[in-house]
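During the reporting period the student researcher (J.K.) took over the structure-prediction task from the postdoctoral fellow and processed the backlog of single-chain submissions. One of the processed entries is reproduced below for the supervisory committee.
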Amino acid sequence: MSQDARSPGISRRRATQVLAAGAAALSAPMLSLAQGQPVRVGYAMARTGPWTGGAQVSQEPNYILWAEQQNAAGGLNVGGTRRRIELISSDDRSDIETCVRTYEKLMGSDKVDLILPPWGSNANFAVAPLANRFQYPFLAPTALSRRLVEMKLPYFFLMLQQPAPMTNALVDMLKAQGVKSLAVIYVDDLFGLENYAALKVALQGSGINIVEDKSYPGGVKDLSPVLRSIKDKNPDAFVGFTYPPDTILASRQAKEIGFNPRFFYASVGTAFQLYRNVMKEGAEGVLGMGSWNQKTSPGAKAYFDAHTKRFEGKEPDRWASGAAWAALEILTAAVGRHGLDRKAIRDYVAGNEHNTILGKIRFNGSENVGTPGSVSQWQKGEFEVVWPRAVATAPLLAPKPAWV
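J.K. obtained the following structure tokens:
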């Protein structure tokens, strides 16, 4: 993982230590509002290894900000009583086995009050059955997998739009722009495979042909050979189901070889401030997975400003960060109504429509069916939602300008 994608001031120590200074700063009257024992909230998160970039942009900062905000208000509202949040967390080292062991301990022997999910489709896929077995509601903001929906785990909820709605939105946009050909690359794991499969289904009957498709292993260091091959076929559009380092790699190398199709789409990581900072003016017109920005709602603007201030200029990403905060909003409301009764929390999440910074969210089984599939695009320093038009924050910029 690039050293540009570092943790926002988070060490390997427990996140409780991160919160200590904020708790100490509370006034005596505010502290007196908190009653009883702390609410123990457990999670594992990548602070080292290849998952770190995504985890420390999209997820852990939100957990810390949420706990600090709740504690500053006197504690989390637990069925009408304010109780301080104690985050109990550790580094999963970007390792599935470590992640699973940690959650099994948190839920099994530690018996924490609440659980927050890890980062990424693979980790959530591994941990989801545990959440169901121990009956802990999981609102996962960075899992993208139809297989998780099909597992029908009643305690597991996916906040992100899943592969079919996301690729349907992309194909709908490309079709509306007269695209006839595209090339696709995808990382050879659950995320890449499922999105590639969904894309092929979405393309059926669209009149758009795949002229080249290539998978690549995680941790790839050079994509220029496949990009040169794609350039020779001159497709109207390029689609990459890529992780943050690969998204930047593909973009940089496409620029180096002069591959500039009418539409250039890559994810995950396109929605990150890091992408804009690395690509600079070259980010203009690049498309990717995104669902919100500061224009989406007053709550989204307030969240963006609070996050950016707390982490000293580090912005939330315009896709999964919003889903992470929306998940915390839903969990907060559920605990306020039902306390720490995990089954009642689960039933509340499953059975209601929820107001969030992303808009109204509701679940059909594990799937968020309230948030439509969407496409976003960098325009003048902001990752604008451009499709579908009903939720767009700006019109689509087409074709993509030349790389700068």
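The committee noted the following: The longest strand covers residues 209-216.
J.K. will present the remaining backlog at the next meeting.
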